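Quarterly update, task 2.4: uridine-5'-diphosphate-bound model.
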Amino acid sequence: MESTSSPVEMFFFPFVGGGHQIPMIDMARMFAAHGAKSVIISTPKHALSFRESIHRDQQSGRRVFIEILLLPDNIDIADSDMSATPVTDTSMLQEPLKKLLLQRKPDCIVHDMFHHWAADAIDNLELNVARIVLNGNGCFANCARENISKFKPQEKVDSKYEPFVLLRTGTSLCRTIQEREQSVDRRAGIVVQQEQSVDKAERGKKAAIDEQTILSWLHSKPPNSVLYISFGSSPRFAPQQILELAHGLQASNQPFIWVIRDVFKGEGTGFLTEFEEKMRESKQGLIINGWAPRLLILEHGSVGGFMTHCGWNSTLEGVSCGVPMITWPISAEQFFNEKLVTDVLKIGVRVGSLDWLWWNMEPWVSVGRDMVEEAVKRLMGGGEEGGEMRNKARVIGEMAKKAVEAGGSSYKEAIALINELKDRRRIIE
Ligand code: UDP
């Protein structure tokens, strides 16, 4: 830990790839923009996906650095294809991380919760380093989960599809959790993602399509007419489910951009090639096979809807770009995020996905083509309901942008955390 006058040193220890790595990198860059010295701890392969953007920050004078943890025999964790899952074991990073912390004694470390060993390993060093956890979820989902485990409302219903009351906003438990998250002692605090500044075209990974192709396709479409469809960094669908989605989209007659990652191997590939060809000829749809420059697309004026799996990053991106959504939750806390979008914020329609799927479960068809077509028409078809949602999404998007501008709530919270770490330094000294 350095003297009280030197900038606060914040270590960021993202998970290896997947949807959790992107917001942690954004956060490190955002705190550096606010005057902290940010150090991102990564491995050789995983650092490849963000080192260019960090380099650009350094050139503009920001104190943001990458610290590589080296493993024996040049081995690395998982691979660099953003394919890590919550069960990917990263414990081989424990010793190099401990060594680094003992050497550098930063003011704080923000670590991803999927480094399951990190909390104990860091606390046991007794270094007085403030430890903050990124669990990748928002306050709403955290409150919902806490209520589930405390009051067990799910045990009072007869079937897995029967609804139950989970939380009423403003309840004391909800407030307690928010207060805890904002508490002064962040020894084991939780950091909740805020909207981030990003290099849009190169975020996460190199895009599989060039910026110009996307932009000229989007420019050719009327305002608010295009539906953007993407299901996160590691989507899994049954081949038949992809077919249902394709048929539903075609029947809706709505222009769309659909990001199909490597989800459709084997059976049915012929259909998809044909479909892609047909959509290109009719100019109804653009299909991206691989990683898409998400924010570049979502911020375009022709995009009027976002079909999403409701991952928290995706939800935040939809909200902050002011785009209403078609929600298709699949796993993790995505069903909670769907509730937030549809019932609380009222900026989205459900496609009707009801079945929660864990990483190691075989996916099945849960949404038929008619359901897809109906949801697309409700949101994008020019009706009153869709129009209201679009207006509301725009207003909420403006609020989200204001929150990260100078004087906004997120902006102030970031500075408050830096100041708190400075104060903490004085107390420890
Ligand atoms: N993403 C992207 N291009 C893609 C697919 C995903 O930029 O083609 C980004 C997306 O913008 C988001 C993240 O990957 O920031 C996915 O995170 P989210 O929490 O939504 O879902 P997860 O991948 O964790 O399920």
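Highlight for this quarter: Residues 176-188 have pLDDT under 50 and may be disordered.
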